[in-house]
Amino acid sequence: MHHHSPIERVLRGIALLIVVLFFMFPIFWILLMSLQTNETILRSPPSIVFEPTLSNYAAIIAGRLDSNVASMGIDFMSNLMNSVILSVGSVALALVLGVPAAYAFARHKFRGSEDIAFTLLSFRFAPPLLVLLPLTLYFQQIGLADTYFGLIWVYQLICLPLILWIVRGYFEDISPDVEHAYRIAGHSWFSTFRRISLPLAAPGIAAAALLAFIFAWNNFIFALVLASADKQPVTVGALAFVTASGIQYGQIAAAVVLSITPTLALALYAQRYLVEGLSLGAVKG
Amino acid sequence: MSIRIENLTKRFKADSVLDDVSFEVPAGETLVLFGPSGAGKTVLLRCIAGAVEADEGSVWLNGKDATDLPPEDRGLGMAFQNFALFPHMSAEQNIASPLEARRIPKAGIASGVRRVAELLKIDHVLDHAPRELSNGQKQRTALARALVAAPDLLLLDDPLRNVDAKLRFEMRLELPRLLADRGATVIYVTQDYKEAMALGQTVAVLDGGRIAQIGTPEDIYLRPASRAISRLFGDPTINLLDVTPEVDERGVFVSLSGHRVPLSPGYEEAVGRSAVLGLRPEAVLFAETGFPVQIEAETPLNEKTITLTTTARGREVFVSRPAGAPGPSGDKAYLTVEGAATLLFDKATGARIEPASGADEVAA
């Protein structure tokens, strides 16, 4: 353990406080906004004293958007459902494809393996707009446009490289001798992968899956172009709050709170995994 | 299970780690693979286990070509130098894994694990995870895992390397009996010459990826094939002095600090050649006359005393004498050499110069 002088500790505390305020304040403010009506939000100067209301949440969950001019239907809850389907589906597919691939790249050096791995990573470099136009045309021709499967496929551009590269590192950290020992004991290659490699890389797989889930959840541009109203996730669905009669800040805030809740909860829960994953690497049995 | 290695070669990039290695171990015998670190012992063991693929050559198990057999089908047991325990399983699950692979019913697995754990005195830590075990317990868990399924061939990769001295000594005594009881063929890797002497019916000295010498421990100690091998066996290491053998009416001799040290008969061929004299420290004796040396340091080790001396020309000579034997009284002394115990190596090649045939009988 390091010992720090009191001044150092105070300075460190202040620095942490600034960082936390900087990153947490927008979330805190959004939460406040979601509990206010548009009138109190737009009041100048802004105040944190107000009468909280759940009307924004009620409107979103009921699917009715009432403004002072007109009332229109909005299917935010099905957007939320779409987000869940798309994110879970694409992470699941990326795990099924990416974990065995990561193992192959970690353990079997074959001709061109580095090049293939790097090509997969490079999918993350290209701006999404670059691939979107040709992709839209292809998808319309082969009938994948506006389907969950088509979107999940495109989401692999986000999830697969992430999972592949993170999990590959975890597999590389497992001593090959541990795997050899299990095979020499008489177990097949596949059973060694299932009983030794996968459990030992589990913290890494969990961390990668979590990151991929968050990236998939937050994706906007692929869904905006490739999905129509009934397949849109929350990120795109939130656009509906920008109406002809004005921007419904209260409802946007409520929608944002609802849409970040799953990822926030996941991140908080999986924090343990991330820490475990890092410390497992440090104390190898 | 008998094992035969034929012309095994393994290269990593441009370096050859194993270079045309061939040897054979009959069923039930123990071969000690001995060599300095980096000699290729571990790679050789892995080639036999199937964990590493050789570039050339073949591995024969029980007379069958096993070169392309996957490790799980070779039916052998192996203990790794780094233990290679499964970190997410308890010691019990670790030991049980070879039995599980052989589809033995649960009750049989439990009793099998218990039996070998009791034998190795780790039955009280069976439910511990590997990280909760001491090094000695890890080592014995790894050994138990290799032994539990009673394989016909056991590969032990320096299993005593990472354990403390007391346990190493105990295991060095126990292991030969344990292995003999099992009747398995054993290949035992070590870089400790005492372990090699204690365990091996046959010792293969691996140096630079090649088998430098195969023989009994006595053979390798008394008749090392080269200067390099003579240095690997023995503690303290052999004294090596550059000499040029001469001959006079009393026979072949070398001259040390002007003192005539006779060589055993048969070395006539070496006269006039640049050579290296090998003197085991226990073959050098303190005496009333002999070649003069300066005493530099003395290390009493209870059962023997090691003295470091230097000759008039500053060459270091270790002298080892049994406890209780009279030592030097001042800082000057005289040394003599037991003639029959000297070794002579060619200075250029390092190869041992063999005395002419029949010379041993004459000396005896």
**CATH arch. level architecture of chain A:** Orthogonal Bundle
Q: Order of helices and strands of chain B, N to C? A: EEEHEEEHHHEHEHEEHHEEEEEEEEEEEH
Q: List SSEs of chain A in N-to-C order.
A: HHHEEHHHHHHHHEEH
**CATH topology category name of chain A:** MetI-like fold
Largest sheet of chain B: 6 strands, mixed
User: How many DSSP H or I helices of chain A?
Assistant: 12
Report the span from N to C terminus of chain A: 23 Å
Structural class category of chain A: mainly alpha
Backbone structural class of chain B? alpha+beta
Range of strand content of chain A: under 5%
Largest interface: A-B, 21 and 29 residues
Strand order across the largest sheet of chain B: 6-7-8-3-9-10
Q: What's the overall geometry of chain A? A: globular
> What spatial form of chain B do the alpha-carbon principal axes imply?
elongated
End-to-end separation of chain B:
40 Å
Portion of residues in beta strands of chain B equals 25-35%
Write down the CATH class of the largest domain in chain B: Alpha Beta
- Average pLDDT level of chain B: 86
Could you please say which CATH topology of the largest domain in chain B applies here? Rossmann fold
Sequence stretches where pLDDT stays below 50 over 5 or more residues of chain B: 359-364
Could you please describe the fold and organization of this structure?
The complex is a heterodimer of chains A (285) and B (364). Chain A is mainly α and 285 residues long. Chain A has helices at residues 6-34, 38-41, 55-62, 76-107, 113-122, 128-142, 148-173, 176-184, 189-218, 221-226, 234-237, 249-282, and strands spanning 64-66, 71-73, 242-243, 246-247. Chain A has a single domain, classed as MetI-like (MetI-like fold, Orthogonal Bundle). Chain A has 12 helices and 4 strands. In chain A, the strands form 2 sheets. Chain A has a two-stranded antiparallel sheet with strand order 1-2. Chain B has 364 residues and is α+β, with helices and mostly antiparallel strands. Chain B has 2 domains: 3-229, P-loop containing nucleotide triphosphate hydrolases (Rossmann fold, 3-Layer(aba) Sandwich), CATH 3.40.50.300; 236-363, OB fold (Dihydrolipoamide Acetyltransferase, E2P) (Beta Barrel). Chain B has a 6-stranded mixed beta sheet, sandwiched between helices. In chain B, strands 16-20-17-18-19 form a 5-stranded antiparallel beta sheet, with no helix packed on it. In chain B, a hairpin with a 2-residue loop joins strand 13 and strand 14. Chain B is elongated and about 80 Å long. Chains A and B meet through helix 8 and helix 9 of A and strand 6 and helix 2 of B.
